[in-house]
Design goal:
heterodimer, A: alpha/beta, TIM Barrel, five-stranded parallel beta sheet, three-stranded antiparallel beta sheet, 9 helices, B: alpha+beta, 3 helices, about 20% strand
Chain lengths: ~270, ~100
């Protein structure tokens, strides 16, 4: 006796249950039906109606497709749901590690007043807009709740260097926790560089901190886009970029991807795209 | 502003179904509802750029029918959807 069932045992019976799917109208009478993992089928409206109302006959050309794409499962067929679960698990595998990027807005203060900035910038002298030690501790707790082996902390603002003492505090605590838990820790500071002192840059070098910087274009454009007291945003950027490369390291200073690989003025300041 | 009133039978379609359908036409008309026992009256106020009012209304009625079908599928497959998600993430700590 064969241990396999005969082919007839796998033939469609026409008795089926719906599996979760959604649909949208394309053009005219044409509909796109998609399931939880993105498998899709194009049918006309009356076929869709028959499918949902369980009137679709096994002899219909779309019946086999609907089974294969896991829009329907024959009565008693447990494999379809299990296969769909497997595909769902694969599709959403990234969720298992949650996120590895955590941004700390250490202050809303900034020495610049760029018109396009998405942050509700506060003036430089308002300490009330700084992240507190208590907030930092709670945020670190959240960072290390992530199951991801790799953890990246990015400091943003405002201008994060305006609250550099807090950056030191967070970095020291994060390094201890990362070492204790066997995590790979990467730290980035997104900065205009305008307030980058030798002491700050040496700290970044000693703690393997990456600097993320950006330039809007040549001097007149950059200074117009990024007004600050002294109207010297560009000049500070260029001077401090040079210092950052020398102290922190050429490859430790990067510019985020832009619309253009070579924005105007790039060669003047000598930055590179990440 | 051009205005039309169309009615649906509440025994056939829920207010939520009609509202869901209306979102798809937010660039063509604004909508108000007058819900009565025997009918759900939809007051459509068309944007001035819309010239084929009958065509838009016809499409809107089809979309109401589609939304009704979507709701049926979602309701009927709710338990299997939860089962699949629970099975998929059973070893992740996410469920």
């Amino acid at each position: 006796m064969s241990k396999f069932l005969p082919p007839e045992s796998f033939a469609a019976t026409g008795a089926y249950d719906l599996l979760p799917f959604n649909f949208t109208r394309l053009e005219g009478d044409s509909y796109l039906a998609t399931n939880m993992v993105g498998e899709s089928l194009i049918v006309d409206r009356s076929t869709l109606d028959d499918l949902v109302n369980k009137r679709l006959a096994p002899s219909h050309p779309s019946y086999t497709d609907a089974r294969a794409k896991h829009l329907i499962a024959e009565k008693g067929d447990k494999a379809s749901a299990e296969l769909l679960a497997l595909k769902t698990r694969t599709r959403y595998q990234r969720l298992q590690n949650f996120t590895n990027l955590h941004m700390f807005v250490t202050t809303l203060r900034c020495d610049h007043s760029c018109q396009y900035c998405q942050v509700s910038r506060q003036s430089e002298d308002k300490g009330a807009f700084d992240m507190t030690l208590e907030m930092a501790d709670k945020s670190l707790d959240m960072v290390f709740r992530s199951p991801s082996k790799a953890v990246k902390i990015e400091f943003q603002g405002g201008e994060p260097l305006l609250n550099f003492d807090l950056i030191r505090y967070i970095v020291s605590k994060a390094k201890v926790r990362a070492a204790a838990e066997g995590r790979d820790l990467e730290i980035v500071i997104a900065t205009t560089l305008s307030l980058a002192t030798t002491e700050i840059l040496e700290y970044c070098r000693d703690n393997h901190i990456l600097l993320s910087v950006s330039l809007d274009g040549p001097s007149d454009l950059h200074n117009k886009n990024r007004p600050r007291p002294g109207k010297d945003s560009y000049q500070r950027f260029v001077a401090n970029l040079q210092a950052a490369r020398e102290i922190v390291g050429y490859d430790r200073v990067s510019e985020p991807p832009r619309l253009s690989r070579r924005p105007v003025g790039l060669s003047q300041a000598g930055t590179r795209s990440a | 502003m051009l205005e039309r009133v169309i009615s649906f039978d509440p025994a056939a379609y829920s207010l939520e179904t009609i509202q869901r359908a209306a979102y798809r036409y937010i660039d063509k008309f604004s909508i108000g509802f007058n819900v009565k026992e025997a009918s759900i009256d939809c007051i459509l106020q068309f944007d001035k750029e819309v010239d084929d009012l009958d065509g838009v209304i016809q499409d809107f009625r089809k979309e109401v029918l589609d939304q009704h079908l979507r709701a049926r599928i979602a309701k009927e497959t709710e338990s299997i959807r939860h089962l699949i998600l629970a099975h998929a993430f059973s070893r992740t700590g996410l469920v």
